[in-house]
Write a structure and sequence with these properties.
single chain; alpha+beta; five-stranded mixed sheet; 23 helices; globular
C-alpha cells in the first residue's frame, strides 16, 4: 500500500453514508486537476496510479478529517511516524526511514507493511477448534525438492574438508537493482547509535574485527566497488545483544532489505525445506537418558564457505571509526539472515553423518537426530558409552571443520578419558552449572529443569491488550510442563478478545485484576525444579499413560512415563502436556471431551516417534462415558464432526487401551481448568500422576458404555435400522448371506416408503447398491 503525506485509505464497507458523496466528489476532483491535491483532499495511489477498480477503497475529503479522529495516539519517537486511531482503524503519519524502501524519490513515496490483521488471526487460533486434516509432513514442494537436488549437485569440499556451498538462486528473477544507497543509509543510522553507546560500539568493532581476522569477510578493492553489476547486493546490518557466555553481541545481516527494484536478495533465493528434528522430540529424548550431554558448534554457519563467484551477493559497508573512509567487504561464508543459511549448514551436518554412517553408526544417527541447529542435546545409558559417543561425534564433525565446544553433562566422569584437560581449546567445557536448553534452563549439577522468569516484566501499569499480551507471549514452555499456568494466561487473552478491547485500550477492571494476580505469581515458576530424567536405570517396564479432560474454558492432555526396574522400583514422571482454550463459539462439553481425547492421541503419537527406548504399553484415560462409548462405535454411525475425530483416534490408538477414570483421579482435569503457579507447585498429582499409577493394585473404574440409542451425535437413520432388526434369529432363517442381505434391503425400502411422501418413494424391481450397503450395515 502506497501512503502519501495526506492519504487516508478506508474500507468501503466501513464508510459513513454522509461522507460517501464527498468522497466521490474528491475522486472527480483528483481526475480533473492534480493541483487540488495539496489543498483539500486525501487521496490514494496504488502502483503509482489512481486505482478506480479497488472497490474496497474510498477517498475522504480534508473537511472530514477531524470528524473521524478517535482517542488513541502513539508517538514512536524523533524522526519516526505517529500512529493515530480513527473511526476506521489506525493510520500512519510522518517520516519513515528505517526498514522502508524509497521507490520514487521525486514524490517522497514510502512503502510500509501493516500486520495487525495477521496478528489478530494468528492469536485467535488459540481458541478455534482444530479442523480434521491428514497432515503429511513428508511432502515437499517442488522448490524444496529442487533445493535438495541443487545441494547435491553443487556442494564442494576444500582440501581441509570444509564445505563450500552455492546459494540456490531462483530462475527467472530480474535484476536485483541498486542496494548500495539503502545499505549506506542504514549504516549511517547504525553508526549514530554506536557513537552514543560506547560499550556497544566496542563490541560491534570487536565482532567485525574477528570476522575479518578469521577470513570470514574480505575487503573489496576500490576499483571493484565501481563496477557494481547484476550480481551485487549490499546487506544492511545491525547488532543484537544476547545472553551468551562467549558472545555478548551478534551482528545480524538483513538479506530481506528491498532494492530500488523492490526485491531483496532473499526474494531471489529458493525456499529450503525443514530437515532438522522437531524441538519437542529432541527435548523428550533428552529426558530419557541416564547420562545427558549438551554442546554446541562454534560459529556453525560461518564454518561453511560460499563459492567465490557468489560472494558479491553478500557485500556490506563498514568502518570502525567515523573519521575513516567507508569500506566495502564481502562475506565469504554462509550468512545468518539469508533464506537458505539454516538449510545449508544443517544439510552439511547431515552429509557428514551420511558419509560416516558405516564407521560410526550410533554417532551419525545422533548428529542427524539430536541437533537443533548448532545445539547438540543428547545422551546415553552409561559413562563408557558417553565417552565413546562424545569422541566419535567430535571426530565426524571435525572432519568437516565443525568444532564442538561448551560441553556440559550431569556425569563429569565422562571427561576422565582426556589426558590433559588444560590442553583443550577455550570454552571446550562449560563453566556454568546452568544453561538454557531450547527454552528451558538445565542445571547439570542437580540434573533438574527450571523456568527462567527474569525477563518477564511489564514496562508500565496501563495494562492495555498490548501490554498484557507482551507478558503472556514470554511464557515459553515447549513441553507444556507448566501447562495449567499457560491455560490461565490464554483464558485472560481470550477474555480481551471477547470484550473487543483494542490494542492500546485499557482492559476492563476484572481482567486487570486477574492478570495482576497471575503476574505476581509468575516468579514462583522459577522455584519449580523438575527432574530431567523420567526413567529409572535398567528399567524392564516402560509405559506411557495419557490423560485427557475438558471444561468449559479449556481442554487438554498430559502424559506420564511409568517405569519399573528389576527390583520392582516404580517411578512415574510427567513427560509433557498440551492444552487448547475452548472456542468462543459454544461447543458441547462431550465434543470438547472428544477433542481432548484426540489431543491425547496425537500427543502420545508424537511421544512414540520421539522415544528411542522400547515402550511396553500405552494407556489412555478419560472421565467421559460418552467419549468412551463413541470410541467403541463404528464411525459411520456417527455424525460428521464426531465421526472424523473418532476415526482418527481409532486409527492412532488401540481402543482396548482406553479406560475410564474418575474425575478426581484425572490428572488432565488440572490443565483443563488452569492453575496459578503457587497451586501448581504443590500439586503432587500433576507432577507424579494419580496414585493408582504408582500402586497398580488399585483398580481403575470399569468401563461402562452407553447403548447406541442413548448416545448423542448418532445418525437418525442408524437408530431406525437397529430397531428394525433387533431379533438376531433372522440369521437362522437363511443359509445364504446374499439372500439375507437382499431381504433386509427390501424390508428397509418398505419401511422407508411408509414414512415418505408418494413423490419421494423408491419404486422398481431392482435394489440399488446404496440400499444393499445399508442392509449390510444393519446386519
Amino acid at each position: 500500500m502506497w501512503i502519501y503525506p495526506r492519504v487516508l485509505r478506508v474500507p468501503w464497507t466501513a464508510r459513513k453514508p454522509e461522507i460517501s458523496n464527498r468522497a466521490c466528489a474528491e475522486e472527480d476532483r483528483y481526475k480533473s486537476s492534480r493541483s487540488h491535491e495539496t489543498s483539500s483532499a486525501f487521496w490514494i495511489r496504488k502502483n503509482n496510479e489512481f486505482d478506480k477498480s479497488a472497490k474496497l477503497d474510498i477517498l475522504l475529503g480534508a473537511g472530514v478529517f477531524w470528524d473521524i479522529l478517535a482517542d488513541g495516539q502513539f508517538k514512536l519517537g524523533d524522526g519516526k511516524p505517529i500512529l493515530q486511531k480513527t473511526l476506521f482503524g489506525w493510520v500512519i503519519s510522518g517520516p519513515i526511514y528505517q526498514n522502508c524502501s524509497i521507490q520514487n524519490n521525486s514524490s517522497n513515496t514510502i512503502s510500509c507493511n501493516l500486520i495487525t490483521t495477521t496478528l489478530e488471526n494468528a492469536i485467535e487460533k488459540f481458541w478455534k477448534i482444530e479442523e480434521y486434516q491428514d497432515d503429511n509432513k513428508t511432502k515437499r514442494t517442488i522448490e524444496e525438492k529442487q533445493c535438495e537436488e541443487h545441494f547435491l549437485k553443487t556442494i564442494q569440499r576444500t582440501e581441509t574438508g570444509r564445505f563450500r556451498a552455492t546459494l540456490p538462486v531462483r530462475e527467472g528473477v530480474g535484476d536485483l537493482g541498486n542496494s548500495k544507497m539503502n545499505a549506506i543509509k542504514r549504516f549511517h543510522k547504525l553508526e549514530s547509535k554506536l557513537i552514543n553507546d560506547t560499550v556497544m560500539r566496542q563490541q560491534y568493532s570487536e565482532f567485525m574485527r574477528e570476522y575479518e581476522k578469521l577470513g570470514h569477510m574480505t575487503k573489496v578493492p576500490t576499483w571493484a566497488t565501481e563496477m557494481d553489476g547484476k550480481g551485487v547486493f549490499y546487506l544492511p546490518h545491525h547488532g543484537v545483544v544476547k545472553d551468551s557466555a562467549t558472545t555478548k553481541l551478534r551482528v545480524v545481516f538483513d538479506a530481506s532489505a528491498k532494492t530500488g527494484n523492490g526485491i531483496s536478495l532473499n526474494d531471489t533465493l529458493m525456499v529450503d525445506p525443514t530437515i532438522q528434528e522437531d524441538l519437542f522430540a529432541i527435548i523428550i529424548r533428552f529426558r530419557q537418558h541416564n547420562v545427558a550431554m549438551v554442546a554446541d558448534i562454534k560459529k556453525m554457519y560461518r564454518q561453511v564457505e560460499i563459492v567465490e563467484e557468489q560472494r558479491d551477493l553478500q557485500r556490506i559497508m563498514w568502518r570502525s571509526d567515523p573519521n575513516l573512509p567507508l569500506e566495502v567487504y564481502t562475506l565469504n561464508t554462509v550468512t545468518y539472515g539469508t533464506a537458505p543459511a539454516s538449510f545449508i549448514a544443517i544439510r552439511c551436518l547431515h552429509q557428514l553423518a551420511l558419509e560416516n554412517s558405516k564407521k560410526y553408526p550410533v554417532a551419525s544417527q545422533v548428529i542427524t537426530r539430536d541437533f537443533y541447529v548448532d545445539d547438540l542435546i543428547t545422551g546415553t545409558d552409561t559413562i563408557e558409552n558417553a565417552q565413546i559417543l562424545r569422541q566419535n561425534i567430535t571426530n565426524i564433525l571435525e572432519s568437516g571443520s565443525f568444532p564442538l565446544r561448551k560441553w556440559k553433562t550431569n556425569k563429569p566422569n565422562i571427561f576422565n578419558d582426556i589426558n590433559n584437560i588444560s590442553d583443550l581449546p577455550d570454552h571446550y567445557l562449560s563453566t556454568d552449572d546452568q544453561s538454557k536448553t531450547l527454552g528451558l534452563v538445565w542445571n547439570s549439577q542437580s540434573d533438574t529443569l527450571h523456568f527462567s522468569t527474569d525477563s518477564i516484566q511489564i514496562e508500565n501499569n496501563n495494562f492495555t491488550k498490548r501490554d498484557i499480551l507482551s507478558v503472556i507471549a514470554q511464557l515459553f514452555d515447549p513441553l507444556g510442563l507448566v501447562g495449567p499456568v499457560i491455560v490461565k494466561a490464554k483464558v485472560i487473552m481470550q477474555k480481551l478478545w471477547q470484550h473487543k478491547v483494542d490494542w492500546d485500550q485499557i482492559a476492563p477492571s476484572p481482567i486487570i485484576s486477574e492478570f495482576i494476580h497471575l503476574q505476581k505469581e509468575l516468579p514462583i515458576l522459577a522455584t519449580i525444579k523438575i527432574p530431567r530424567q523420567i526413567t529409572v536405570p535398567k528399567a524392564n517396564v516402560i509405559e506411557i499413560h495419557t490423560f485427557s479432560d475438558a471444561s468449559t474454558i479449556a481442554y487438554g492432555a498430559c502424559s506420564y512415563l511409568r517405569t519399573v526396574d528389576n527390583s520392582g522400583q516404580c517411578s512415574v514422571r510427567l513427560i509433557c502436556a498440551k492444552s487448547r482454550v475452548a472456542p468462543l463459539k459454544v461447543v458441547t462439553l462431550p465434543r470438547l471431551e472428544l477433542n481432548a481425547a484426540l489431543l491425547a492421541t496425537n500427543l502420545t503419537a508424537k511421544l512414540m516417534e520421539a522415544f528411542t527406548c522400547h515402550i511396553s504399553n500405552i494407556f489412555y484415560y478419560t472421565d467421559s462415558i460418552i467419549v468412551l462409548s463413541w470410541l467403541n462405535t463404528e464411525p459411520a454411525l456417527l455424525k460428521t464432526f464426531v465421526a472424523n475425530r473418532v476415526a482418527d483416534i481409532q486409527g492412532k490408538s488401540k481402543i482396548e487401551n482406553w479406560q475410564h477414570v474418575k474425575s478426581e483421579h484425572n490428572a488432565a482435569d488440572i490443565i483443563s481448568r488452569g492453575s496459578l503457579p503457587s497451586q501448581l507447585l504443590e500439586c503432587d498429582m500433576w507432577w507424579n500422576g494419580p496414585f493408582f499409577l504408582s500402586n497398580p493394585n488399585q483398580p481403575v473404574t470399569n468401563n461402562n458404555f452407553l447403548p447406541l440409542n442413548e448416545l448423542p451425535e448418532v445418525k437418525n437413520s442408524t437408530l431406525t435400522q437397529n430397531v428394525i432388526i433387533a431379533d438376531s434369529k433372522i440369521f437362522e432363517r437363511y443359509s445364504n448371506f446374499d439372500k439375507l442381505n437382499r431381504v433386509i434391503a427390501w424390508i428397509l425400502r418398505f419401511k422407508g416408503n411408509t414414512l415418505r411422501a408418494k413423490h419421494d418413494r423408491i419404486y422398481g424391481t431392482k435394489l440399488t447398491v446404496h440400499e444393499l450397503k445399508l442392509a449390510k450395515k444393519a446386519l
